Amino acid sequence: MQTEVLIAGGGPIGLALAVELGLRGIRTTLVEQHERKALQPRAKTTNVRSMEHMRRWGIAKTLRASAPLPPDFPTDVTFQTRLFGHHLTTFHNAFYGARDARDDRFSEGAQWIPQYKVEAVLKAHAAAQPSVTLRSGVRLDAVTQSPDGIEATVVDAASGQASAIRAQYLVGADGSRSQVREMIGARMEGDYAFAQHIGYVLRSPALSEIFATRRAIMYWLANADCPATCGPMDVDDTWFFGFPIPNGTEPPEGAELRQRINAAFGREVPFEIIVDDRWSAHSLIANRYAQGRIFLAGDACHIHPPYGGYGMNLGLGDSVDLGWKLAAVLRGWGGPRLLDSYEAERRPVHRRVVAEAVANHSLLSGAFARPELEQDGPAADAVRREVGELIQSQKIREFRTLGVVIGYHYDGSPILVPDGTPAPPERVTEYEPSARPGCVAPHLWLRDGDSLYDRFGQYFTLLVTDTGASDEAGRLATAASRSGVPLSVVTPRDDRLRDLYGARLALIRPDQHVAWRGDTAGDAAAILDTIRGA
């Protein structure tokens, strides 16, 4: 079997890469050894940036329709002493998931949805692409590579039959225990298993009684008996529930486990355990992301605690960055430096996000437990107010993350044309749009009601913010044509764009990052050669 790109791993990262490649007509084969029917929620937040990619892929509405919680369900995170206990504080519109108003800073709000639902939507969209082949129950067994491509041996799990697949490139999106990572001799560096956790999926209709008092997508329970987090996976009876356990110990079982869980709820609640999932918190990044024609993406090259909702979303960003670059090289207009920029761009983002996730993990619900929180009277009320204010000040960076989610940038990338302006300061809770090359292109809801992003093309886009720059735009379009770079030219009629972008012209990459901006085309050919990695 021959293909252009072989993907090992059929989770959200591999599927997203298949979609990115498939929409560009790249012949892609994805192999996944498991059936992937687990009910663990895993990632639960598809964040703002990932939802913008879903919109670009044409599946944002489908994904939202697949979410088990209704559209009007508040995207709040609430801190309580126990689920049916005292309220401490609430983060409203956590992760910017509210859908009641448009925000100029982004085209799509976040969506609270279990990972297995996201996978189902991505899988259906990938399977719908004529150039994509999905093969489940197939294991990658071995790979060799040459200057001309790779040859992989895969094994059918049911029959044990081995077969060969030849491809131009292989991408390992095969998770934290990546076999592809081992094949290229890469290793993880950082802190292994520095904390242990246990998670459950519970079925309990009685838990929905909390909705009459306070609806939220997540409840943090601050008490000494069983500090935990929990939340609804639907509006009926399915909930996730989890808590940390000391390193080197076994999680409680039987009556002890039920006692612990009910202690967190604050009352005796009948429940059924559907799934249990023990996991470790790591802080790890691979020492390299590629060898020749083989690349790593997602958990195969970075692992961190899930606090802040970054995990799956960080990997989706890998798929987008690598996907358009692979397509460009395979179609002949991407230069020899383009694929080298993948690790150069993504590694600093990974380092920052891993550090953020570890910082969030350092303050779990038990850190806010106080004996007075569950007492009555004015003194206890004062302690609850004090702890509520402490939570707001210390946990805001976990639930207000635009500065990380869309404020990241690819400073120093070899495929950007610097404009001499300083890099934006790193922020977590605040985001200031910037059109400096390397930043996510500033978004705007145009005066006609359209999203600016919807005007961008599938490949490079030349955004003209001043109609007086049409001659300069023409020079860049001519240079793009001569170099074979697919380019769309858009001139939205909105006078706010000139100030927002700080230039009359801006070249936007396929991943919606700014590659160049300026008032004149300058050396147009050199600009195009730089941004295509030539």
Determine the strand fraction and express it as a percent band: 15-25%
Q: Please, how many helices?
A: 13
Name the structural class.
alpha/beta
Assign an overall shape. globular
Mean pLDDT: 96
Strand order of the largest sheet: 5-4-13-14-15-12-16-19
Major sheet size, sense and barrel closure: 8 strands, mixed
Residue share in helix: 25-40%
Euclidean distance between termini CA atoms:
31 Å
Could you please describe the fold and organization of this structure?
The chain is an alpha/beta fold. Helices cover 28% and strands 24% of the residues. The strands form five sheets. It has an eight-stranded mixed sheet, sandwiched between helices. Helix 1 (12-22) packs parallel to helix 7 (311-330). The two termini are 31 Å apart. The relative contact order is 0.13.
Topology summary:
Elements: E1 5-8, H1 12-22, E2 28-32, E3 45-46, H2 48-57, H3 60-66, E4 77-80, E5 87-91, E6 111-112, H4 115-127, E7 132-136, E8 138-146, E9 149-156, E10 162-167, E11 169-172, H5 179-183, E12 188-203, E13 218-221, E14 228-232, E15 238-245, H6 254-265, E16 272-286, E17 290-291, E18 294-296, E19 302-303, H7 311-330, H8 341-361, H9 378-399, H10 402-405, E20 460-464, H11 470-483, E21 487-490, H12 497-501, E22 505-508, E23 514-518, H13 524-531
Parallel strand pairs: 1-2, 1-11, 2-7, 4-13, 11-18, 20-21
Antiparallel strand pairs: 3-6, 4-5, 8-9, 9-10, 12-15, 12-16, 13-14, 14-15, 16-19, 17-18, 20-22, 22-23
Helix pairs in contact: 1-4, 1-7, 7-8, 11-13
Kindly summarize this structure in a few lines.
By secondary structure, this protein is an alpha/beta fold. It has helices spanning 12-22, 48-57, 60-66, 115-127, 179-183, 254-265, 311-330, 341-361, 378-399, 402-405, 470-483, 497-501, 524-531, and strands spanning 5-8, 28-32, 45-46, 77-80, 87-91, 111-112, 132-136, 138-146, 149-156, 162-167, 169-172, 188-203, 218-221, 228-232, 238-245, 272-286, 290-291, 294-296, 302-303, 460-464, 487-490, 505-508, 514-518.
